[in-house]
Specification:
13 helices; Aminoglycoside 3'-phosphotransferase, Chain: A, domain 2; 358 residues; Phosphorylase Kinase, domain 1; 2 domains; single chain; six-stranded antiparallel beta sheet; alpha+beta; two-stranded antiparallel ribbon
Length: 358
C-alpha cells in the first residue's frame, strides 16, 4: 500500500537520523485502531517535532513524536500537544481528531501521538501564490476567524485551568525563551540579546487570559480542499494559557518582515495580490472576538524575539545532526533577520503603530 512519492509532494522517505523500527508500532497500532500499518513516510514540515504519514488498510494517519537526542528543558512537549487537541476537539476550534497518545519510549524511541490525517491544502508562503487572487482575502479572513475562535474557547470548561499559569505571562515567557536561547546558542545574535534585556522592562498591561497556540501562522493550518476555510490547526507544542495578543502579533509577522529575509509581505503591493493589509487583518480578528484589546509594538517585538529563538534552536539541532527537517540549516539562518526586525521595531526604525480596540 505504499503511495508513489510523485503523488505525495508533502512527504519524503524517513531521514536516516529519524528512522525507527516499526515492529512495535505495528502491533500497538493494530491493538488501538484495528488497522494494519503498511508504510511510513516523513512529512516535510515539523521543524521541531518530527511528523510522519502512516499508511494503513483503513486509510492514512499522522504521527508526531519527540525528536531523538538531547532536548532543551520543557521543549518538544508532545503530551501537551495531545491534551489540548483532545480538549479542543469538542469545540468549534478546528483541530485534527486525536486517536491516541503513547509515552512508552520502547515503541519508537520517544513519546508520540497519532491523529487523523486531514485532507486539505497547506500554504507555505503568505503571498498565497498557489490560489487565485480572488480567494486570498477570504483565506486571511478564515485565519483571523480561526484565531478568534481559539481565543473565545472556554479553557476552564474544557478542563484546561491547569494548562498554564494565569498571571505574569510575558515575564515567564521572556524568561523561558531567554533560557532556551542561552541553551541553544551556537553563534552570536546581538538582537536577541538586546530584546532579552529590553522586553522584561517594557511589559504592557495584560489583555486577559485565553488559550494561546504559541506558533499560530499560515503554514500551521490545513484549509479545506476547495473552500477558504480552516479545517485544522496543527503544531500545538507551544500552546499554553496567556495573552491573546501574543498569538495575534505572531500571526502578523509576515506583515512586519520583508520578502527576502522571511518570506514576508513588507514592500509588496498587497492590493494587487488580493491580500488584506495589516490593519484589515487585525480588524477581521477583532470583528470575531468580543473582547477588546490593544496590540502594541511590544507584542510584535516579543513575537519576533520568540520566533528568532525558535529558529536558532532549529539551527542548533541542525548542527547537532538531529534536526527534524532536512532544510533546518537554511531555515535556521533566518533567526538573525527576525530578531533584528524585532529590535528595529522597538528602536523606532520600523514603524508599527499601536492599534487599540477598546
Amino acid at each position: 500500500m505504499t503511495a508513489p512519492a510523485s503523488i505525495l509532494p508533502e512527504t519524503v522517505p524517513v531521514r536516516e537520523a529519524l528512522r525507527f523500527d516499526p515492529a512495535r508500532l505495528r502491533t500497538l497500532f493494530h491493538d488501538r485502531c484495528g488497522a494494519a500499518l503498511h508504510d511510513i513516510r516523513q512529512m516535510r514540515g515539523g521543524q521541531s517535532n518530527p511528523t510522519f504519514l502512516l499508511f494503513t488498510d483503513r486509510g492514512e494517519y499522522v504521527l508526531r513524536k519527540q525528536p531523538p537526542g538531547d532536548l532543551l528543558p520543557s521543549a518538544h512537549a508532545i503530551d501537551r500537544e495531545y491534551r489540548v487537541i483532545e480538549a479542543l476537539s469538542h469545540t468549534d476550534v478546528p483541530v485534527p481528531r486525536p486517536i491516541f497518545y503513547c509515552e512508552d519510549r520502547s515503541v519508537i524511541g520517544t513519546p508520540f501521538y497519532v491523529m487523523e490525517c486531514l485532507k486539505g491544502r497547506s500554504f507555505s508562503s503568505p503571498t498565497l501564490q498557489e490560489v487565485a487572487r480572488s480567494e486570498r482575502r477570504a483565506i486571511y479572513g478564515a485565519m483571523a476567524d480561526t484565531l478568534a475562535r481559539l481565543h473565545r474557547a472556554d479553557w476552564n470548561a474544557l478542563g484546561l485551568s491547569d494548562y498554564g499559569r494565569h498571571d505574569d505571562y510575558y515575564a515567564r515567557q521572556i524568561g523561558r525563551w531567554t533560557k532556551q536561547w542561552n541553551a541553544s546558542r551556537t553563534r552570536d545574535n546581538p538582537w536577541i540579546d538586546n530584546l532579552a534585556e529590553w522586553l522584561p522592562k517594557n511589559i504592557p498591561q495584560s489583555n486577559g487570559t485565553t488559550i494561546v497556540h504559541g506558533d499560530f501562522k499560515l503554514d500551521n493550518m490545513v484549509f479545506h480542499e476547495t473552500e477558504p476555510r480552516v479545517i485544522g490547526i496543527l503544531d500545538w507544542e507551544l500552546s499554553t494559557l496567556g495573552d491573546p495578543m501574543a498569538d495575534l502579533a505572531y500571526s502578523c509577522i509576515p506583515y512586519v518582515t520583508g520578502a527576502g529575509g522571511y518570506r514576508g509581505l513588507m514592500g509588496l503591493d498587497l492590493q494587487d495580490l488580493g491580500i488584506p493589509d495589516h490593519d484589515a487583518y487585525i480588524a477581521a480578528y477583532f470583528s470575531k472576538n468580543p473582547l477588546r484589546h490593544s496590540i502594541r509594538p511590544f507584542h510584535y517585538a516579543f513575537a519576533l524575539f520568540r520566533r528568532g529563538v525558535i529558529i536558532e534552536g532549529v539551527l542548533s539541532r541542525a548542527k547537532a545532526g538531529n534536526a527534524s527537517n532536512s532544510d533546518a540549516r537554511s531555515v535556521g539562518e533566518r533567526g538573525l533577520g527576525l530578531s533584528r526586525r524585532g529590535w528595529e521595531i522597538v528602536s523606532g526604525k520600523v514603524d508599527v503603530e499601536p492599534t487599540p480596540f477598546s
